[in-house]
What does this fold into?
Amino acid sequence: MTDDSARAASLLHLRGNSLSKGESVTLPLTVSAMYHLPGDPDGAAVYGRMNNPTWEALEHALGHLEQAETLVFPSGMAAIAAALFANLSSGDRLLLPSDGYYTTRLLADRFLAALGVIVETRPTATFTEGGFHGFRLVFAETPSNPGLDLCDIAATALAVHAAGGLLVVDNTTMTPFGQRPLELGADIVVAADTKAPNGHSDVLIGHVASRNPDLIEAMREWRKLSGSIPGPFECWLAHRGLETLELRLDRMCASAEVIAARLSAHPGVRALRYPGQPGDPAHNLARMQMARFGFLIGLTLDGKDQAEAFIDACPLVRPATSFGGVHTSAERRARWGDAVAPGFVRLSIGIEPVEDLWAALDQALSKATA
Ligand SMILES: *Cc1c(COP(=O)(O)O)cnc(C)c1O
It folds into this structure.
């Protein structure tokens, strides 16, 4: 038994252990803009922009996994926007990864820079080089999406704190069962639960978590005043998805380890990134700071045509953007202008039985690269 397995087990009984006789075991979906509110508010639910029992149940469940106070948002980007806008002012310096999720950089360049925030970037693989002096907020993403480089979260947290800044970590690619940035010293975790935590590719949702009550209060106020609130039905679906996260992630990461090893030996593959591969440049760091090696594999084929042919030829791969769903999916990231080779494919391993999945991948790859 580990702490992770204990949290996975107790997650399934969080609601059940607080029930009174006759209440539903499953989470009720509450759709209401108004709450019955005679007289003074006295801490009762007041209005749909401030309170909703369905989203509070999802926050309780995510908070149980993060071991920290948690706020849910209507997408991963809404959670990232809360972490940035609630904690930065004009004249502050912000450091972002140059190779992380592209939209985070766009948001900073398009809106934070216009408000006087000074935005700088640095590659994830050399993130700690150059130090963090003068940065109000440092935002890390590890493994980075899509290149799968890593940075040392504990070393970054120490250096950022010594320089008087805050460390935010985007943990989307790992989830709380794969990596625990708050444990490693991060001040705030942000994540797109759109990906593996919901897991069924039918909801956009995100969260922030922190053990610092002042940071949580600032982000809660941001949510209340900006109106960046999640819909109750989306929260209900994400809550249901979260109940099987540990099971799905276990299958996805175990399959990814098998498939990455076999892909790296395939004659059609020019280069492969997977933190779990012993030869990967980030493998030692991955062993130190990650509980699992993840379900994302970066593989480079000869060029655009081979990559597209591979994706098209495999009946067990959905050609789609996004990742972390039950269905294995893949895309050629250069189609969005990411700084990767034209033949680079981001493969997100799903929950298909691994030997069937491998047989289909192997056949498609051999055909596409023949
Ligand atoms: C998908 C993603 C996001 C954004 O999440 P949305 O729910 O699409 O807004 C943020 N960070 C990373 C690393 C992602 O992969």
Notes: The domain at 246-368 is CATH 3.90.1150.10 (Aspartate Aminotransferase, domain 1).
